[in-house]
Amino acid sequence: MNRIARFTVAAILLGLPVILTAADFTLGAAQVWQKEYPFDANGSLWVENPNGAVEVIGADQNVISISAEKITRGLDEASVEEGREQTALYVAGDSRNRSVRTVVPSIRSGRWSSAVNYVLRVPRGATVKIDSGSADRIRVTNLTGGVSVRNINGPILLEGDSGPVSVDSVNGTIVYTPSGAPSADVKLSTINGHIQIYVEPEARFQWVAEALKGDLLTNLPMHGRLAGSGYRGVLNGGGPTLTTATAMGNVFLIRKGARITDARSVRALESGGPPAAALLSRDIYIPNVDGNFEYQTNIGNIRVPEVHGDARVETAAGEVHLGRIFGSATVRSGGGPLELGDIFGVISAYTKAGDILVQAARAGGEVSTDGGIIRVIYAGGTSRLHSGGGDIIVRQASGPIFADTRSGDVTINVDATLRTTAVNAKTNQGSIVLNVSPKFAADVDITILTSDPDAHTLRTDFPGLQVRRELAGNRTRVRATGKINGGGEKVELYAEEGVILFTANPARPVRLAQP
Amino acid sequence: MGECDSMRESMPLLLTESLDAASRERTHLHIESCDVCHDEWSAYRDTWRMMDELSEVDVPARVKQQFLARIDPAQAAPVRNNVVPFHRRSAARWLAQAAAVVIVAGGAFYAGHQVQQQRPPLPVQAFREPARVTGVTNIQPAKFSLAETRVLGTDALSPNIEGRPNIDNVQFVDSDPSDGTIGLAFDMTSHVTVTGSPKDKSMVRLLSYVLERQDNISPSRSQAIDWVRQMYANQNAEPEIATALAKVLRSEEHEGVRIQAVDTLKTLPGKTASSTRDALIDALKSDPNPAVRLKAIEALIKMASNGEQLDDEAVNTLRKKAGEEAENLYVRVKAAEALSKIRP
Amino acid sequence: MKHLSDQELMRIVQAGDLSPASEIYDRYSGRIYNFAFRFLKNAEAAEDATQEVFVKMIKYANQFHGDAKLSTWLFSITANWCRDYLRKADNKAKEAEDVLISLPAPSELSPDRTLEQREDAARVQRALGALTPEQREAILLSRYQGLSYAEIAQIAGCSEGAVKTRVFRAMETLKKALTGEARGGDRWVNAIR
To answer: What are phi and psi of B228, to 5 degrees?
Structure first.
């Protein structure tokens, strides 16, 4: 029968007032417990510890020995006492399945903190699962039964383990040093940490490696190939699979006894030279470039305040900040916001996800995002603006404008000094606001498609437009056409499920900096 | 100790009816106006109710016999079944108390709403052009009727938006930026301008209502959100505004408006309510627009950088995103960045 | 006797006449027993506690001051007895190990209740068991016995502020356990595979 037992062996209270200090909490207390329970040679152990180190050691024994040190820190004695009361240790199960848990309330006062450090000795053949939040260290040694670790912060060290291993960390670095060759599949995964593996040179396994931003390095004679941002290789003919995946860190596969600095990038190994620029990830900041500038990176932010020439930059994921570009600007990002300053030449800017801000597109150009808000403060030449979903705002259009968005509002202010210019604005879900001067002349064609037949969807300050309403399927189409101020360039506005405001109310002019 | 922490410590007192009337009123008012505390209060009440499930146990008869035998053997008579059961506090009493507070709180909040004199409504006017507010005049009427054009101070009155009236032609007025008051103009049955401080509960409630109105066609809603960002970004922490924006993020059809909503949510100060956090997580999980997902992560990064706890669901969603091959690479990188901010 | 107040009954006892003992017992035994039972999680100990409390009430009747509340005094005696009981080392072990054993199954208590109600009752029992003794004492006296914080402070021998904190902490833990966020000990077993 399963029993729950709280630790009952007399606690050794290491006396107050001050035995431990931390930056915020000046008082602390520690209690230590030790207890043993029978445990099968191939029993299962589950440890759950939100805060504190966990060490599991495989040994030749048929018991589980638990040593736990509970450390509580607080602002004052009452807080320490409360923390001590609120942090509970539970052991449950039987000789086949045993669990050791630290339980703290999820909502508690900020006046104390607690951690429990565990050292557990178990039979070598035990299977161990550890769920941890933050740990100074998680260490598992000399187990053959199988290890599974999940944590958020703190390094994970696996030494002398054989048997299947699975580690899933958020920010921890993983160091795996098996005893002998890996004899079962191993899966090591961390998002922001690194992975280091030390193996014997005669080990045989397959290596599947992924590193989004970081690199994959080894000093073992792997045979393999690159696969996207990853690598598939085989050592000494292959064997169990060693899978390593990290998003932001590096993976090192090192021969035991050798130095980590001897490792080389598999990307370089495969290509026979330095890794391609497209596979390197780094941020770059260059304050000033005389002449043209070209740069390409995998994952990285690009920041260049001034280029006295053309600029051409590309990042697979990252932000791009360009300041003054005296030539043209070509920008490609696989995802990330773009901020372009004063661009004297033609712009061609695209991001797969993110907002785009352009201070001045003096010669116009094309600006496109698959999802995000486009803001252009000043558009000089012909400008084409596209968003896959998001508003488009043009503070001053001093040239023809073509703007379309799948969903979002389009707001365009035409330069008050322009007598006429082409404007084409379209939204499939949203409204359009076009502000021009009272003397603006154009041939106007406005269409609104709306589900609300009674809605006042068109408001215009310009008389003389002919407005018709007709059924279009189960929606109402409102169409207004005509010439204003004698007619001029074409102004075509199209909105679905929104309103169109066409006003004789120009915005204040934008002042451009002198070149 | 923050106000919310202090209110939460009072909640058990509220349940045990141990607060004086003024404190009780204050606590309930806070609960009504604070999304986080409202959720906490609901959870407390549920817990309190569940504790009722633990039923009374009868005292075994032998205990009385043994007691009487010890003090006076002559009194150890055969057991009679006249044990007086303990009367638990009736749930009805607690409910009545809660209801009374609601009425009191409700009455206090909507003070000024009564119409004492019904004036005949003005004829409905058709507006060809959007109404323009050329000036804001402070009139101090004691009563308010929907049928009149009024300029109202929010400290005096709160228009009844509980009946979800149709409002249109929303405009934002700030005729004097230096006086610390702002104005919101809209058509209800007639054109109404309500002025007040950005911190007025009534103004906040009204703005939230405008934000949430599903059938308000943009640009009203986009403009509303933009304007709210100007008023409340990095300045006045108003949980109700955040809640309204979170609702827009969850339920708005227009992607452009959703982007605006999450963009504005990022800029609001103060602790993030659970409804806002949930809306951000849901947006991250399933919004089809990558800009919305990006901005949701940026909002979560800001939360984590401010030391707010990311709960298990947030952490798991971010973990999944960071590893999701089909997701945009930048979104994955940002998810990893959010995770790197988690502290013990 | 039923028409006499607590103070009047105690005055009779103080005068040496034990006839009101039965009436006082009938008035308060249910509350004392239920408090002790939920606090100690042990039916046998609760019976002992109840008996001892009323015996002490008689033995030390002269210490009772007429202007005090009898219930408060009785709960003080009960709380002291229970604390002493727990302090004994073997009883502490029994307290811990008995969490799953000596709580009578809810179905025995009230066979007419629905399964859901019985399961809820079991959950509440377990959740109370997870509190510290100080928190459990405070929440039992507040929630189930309707005592004020001032009275509880008197019984527990601490300040009203401390009682407020204990009740708050207890409610936080109970809230987590009972509103679906935490699970009890059942999932601990076989969790490794």
So the answer is: -60, -40
Decide: A485 and A416 in contact? Cβ < 8 Å. no
**CA angle, corner A330, sides to A324 and A336, nearest 5?**
90
Is residue A367 over pLDDT 70?
yes
Mutate to test the interface with A, among B249, B254, B325 (most CBs of A within 10 A): B254
Q: Which of C26, C121, C146 sits opposite B83 (nearest CB)?
A: C26
Q: Determine contact, residues A446/A481, Cβ cutoff 8 Å.
A: yes
- Interface check for A465 against chain B (CB to CB < 8 A): the answer is no
Q: What are phi and psi of A465, to 5 degrees?
A: -90, 140
In angstroms, the Cα distances linking A454 to A458, A493, B220 are: 11, 20, 17
Q: Cβ B329–A334 below 8 Å, yes or no? A: yes
Chain A contact set for C92 (CB, 8 A) = 8
User: Which residues of chain C are within 8 Å of residue B86 when distances are taken between CB atoms?
Assistant: 30-31, 34
Report residue C41's pLDDT band, with 50, 70 and 90 as the boundaries: confident
Q: E strands within B176-221? A: 182-187, 191-196
| Cross-strand bridge partners of residue A303 | A285, A321
What's the pLDDT at A181?
84
Q: Please name the residues in contact with A398: beta carbons below 8 A apart, sequence gap of 6 or more.
A: A378, A379, A380, A415, A418, A421
Which of A362, A359, A363, A364 lies closest to A375 in space, CA to CA?
A: A359
pLDDT at A57 over 70: yes
Q: How many angstroms separate the CA atoms of A228 and A211, rounded? A: 10
Alpha helices (runs of H) in A257-380, residue ranges in sequence order: 266-271
Closest residue by Cα to residue B141 from B165, B121, B117, B120: B117
Closest CA of chain B from A258, distance in Å: 30
Closest CA to C173 of A189, B51, A221, A344: B51
User: What separation, in Å, do the N-terminal and C-terminal C-alpha atoms of chain C show?
Assistant: 64
Say how many CA atoms lie within 13 Å of A125 toward its Cβ. 8
Q: In the block, which residue shows the tokens 């079962």?
A: A184
Per-residue model confidence as pLDDT tens digits over C109-142: 444 555 666 667 778 888 888 888 899 999 999 9
C155-161 contacts, C-beta under 8 A, 24 or more apart: C155/C72, C155/C75, C155/C76, C155/C79, C156/C79
Helix axes B239-251, B274-286, angle to 10 degrees: 20
Which residue of C172, C181, C183 is the best one to mutate when testing the B interface, meaning the one whose CB has the most B CBs within 10 A? C172
Q: What is the pLDDT of residues B109-143, one digit of tens each?
A: 233 233 333 333 333 333 333 333 333 333 333 33
Residue carrying the six token digits 């302090």: C87
How high is the ipTM of this complex? 0.86
Among A197-201, B76-80, C59-63, the least confident range: B76-80
A169 Ramachandran zone, left/alpha/beta (phi>0; psi -120 to 50): beta
**Joined tokens for residue A457:** 């969807």
Its pTM stands at 0.63
Torsion sign, CA atoms C48, C53, C55, C60: positive
At A155 the three-state DSSP class reads coil
Dihedral of the CA atoms A192, A254, A140, A84 (nearest 10)? -40
Q: Is the peptide bond before A17 cis (omega within 30 degrees of 0)?
A: yes
Nearest by CB: A93 against C130, C189, C193 = C189
Over 50: is that where the pLDDT of C6 sits?
Answer: yes
Please check whether residue B197 is in contact with residue B140, taking contact to mean a CB–CB distance below 8 angstroms.
Answer: no
pLDDT in tens, C15-31: 888 889 999 999 999 99
Tokens standing for residue B136: 């804001």
Q: Which residues pair with A288 in a beta bridge?
A: A306
- Tens of pLDDT along B322-343? 988 889 999 999 999 999 988 7
Residue of A nearest to B258 (CA): A390
Cβ-Cβ contacts under 8 Å, A6 against chain C: 96
